[in-house]
Amino acid sequence: MTQESIKVLVVEDHHVVRQGLVALLNVADGIEVVGEAADGVEAIAQFRKHQPDVTLTDLRLPRLSGVEVIQRIRMETPQARFIVLTTYDGDEDIYRALQAGARAYLLKGMTSDELIATIRAVHAGKSHIPPAIAQKLAERMGAEELTPREFDVLEQIVRGKSNKEIAAELEISEATVKTHINSLLGKLGVTDRTQAATAAIQRGIVPLESLRKPGQ
Amino acid sequence: MTQESIKVLVVEDHHVVRQGLVALLNVADGIEVVGEAADGVEAIAQFRKHQPDVTLTDLRLPRLSGVEVIQRIRMETPQARFIVLTTYDGDEDIYRALQAGARAYLLKGMTSDELIATIRAVHAGKSHIPPAIAQKLAERMGAEELTPREFDVLEQIVRGKSNKEIAAELEISEATVKTHINSLLGKLGVTDRTQAATAAIQRGIVPLESLRKPGQ
DNA sequence: CGCGCCCTCCACCTATAGATGGACCGCGCC
DNA sequence: GGCGCGGTCCATCTATAGGTGGAGGGCGCG
Which CATH number is associated with domain B6-140? Predict the structure, then answer.
């Protein structure tokens, strides 16, 4: 063999998208798709089996999120390399993925060339973050972290709960709820709960799916 | 030729997804992808050029939305058949797409078999709506329509405006704003503006993208 | 024309939300 | 041990939001 192919694992729950990725990558020189996975658990199994050079993964996955997949795999294989590929560009997701050890973050709207170039770059040990993403990341870095409790309160706000209901839910007094709200409004840079709710959804702090109905 | 292939036009702005669809469809018997388009304007041009039997389209498209594409094409070619394929399942989108004349509505998470079966069914003149989607549609049908003004107010609420700001923006009194809010809260089946905002986003009444920053 | 719907506005009242400042406890860290 | 920080709680005040009822004008439709 003249040169080694880059072994790639594709992790993506949407059939058509996965199919598309595999189709794109299979025609690229020097790239070989060694495995596919449709959820987080399967992704880890496939990784162990094939030891790919680069893992291309979605963030929103059944069973285990993309971030969890990255974290777990890196615990046993720290040199593993990841490219996150997602439709959404919520600041929080980007931050968490890169934090977990992803080397690149791409949106699904990118061209095949970009994708292939990124795989090569990441395999060569480089990182690759598109400018638009880098900017969001920068914004996010400037923002303050929410405390766990503030996060709990924010989640309830997004669910449409009143302060009284939040107090009951979290078993704290309404006064405390207001304290947390006041604090989180400041950190999010907004002035009321409605803005906090939309900001939380937009930034991916509270995933939109989570508010369908569950979690009471 | 033993039997005619079904001519399909694929309209989808995300490269990898479009690639995946084309790859999936090209291996299916009796289906031929005659064209691809990455935005609404191109979709109409491709339709005119190839006169496909079935058009498979995303709803969120650059330049012209999927709904607009369906409407415009049906103005000149009423018998054209459409399958809407989208990641989101906001009630409003489903409603508008079917209203515009789509015969089927599929989520991107579906299997290739479902997709192919749906294309055949739609080509044969049938409609195909997955049960989960049908249920949402039913819910939506039961809901009351928002008046244009109520919609304006709701949009401002989602943007995080206060009643006073909304009044200024729409050049009406704050009392009127409250009247509209009261009315739309009832129609949406929610009890406060925060719930109205998340409901609007969830149902796709106000697209999440629209609140990035623009529109002042 | 009369009816219904929408938009507009008003007054009034109550409940909720947000702002402020001060307080106590527990925990990790230097 | 002292310090900082997060979480908890309190009281209080003001602004905003939401609920109710009533009222006028415009517009389309049978």
Answer: 3.40.50.2300
The helix/strand/coil state of A167 is helix
CATH topology of domain A6-141: Rossmann fold (3.40.50)
d(CA A169, CA A151): 14
Nucleotide nearest A191, from its CA to each C1': C18
Q: pLDDT tens string for chain A (216 positions)? A: 446 789 999 999 998 899 889 988 998 999 999 999 999 999 999 999 999 999 999 998 999 989 899 999 998 999 999 999 988 777 778 888 888 889 999 888 888 899 999 999 999 999 888 887 887 777 776 667 788 889 999 999 999 999 999 998 888 989 899 999 999 998 888 999 999 999 999 888 888 776 655 443
CATH assignment, A148-211: 1.10.10.10
A positions 52-71 inside 8 Å of B (CB): none
Regarding beta strands B6-11 and B54-57, do their DSSP bridges make them parallel or antiparallel, or are they unpaired?
parallel
Give the span between the Cα atoms of B33 and B10, in whole angstroms. Answer: 7
Whole-angstrom Cα distance, residue B180 to residue A195?
A: 19
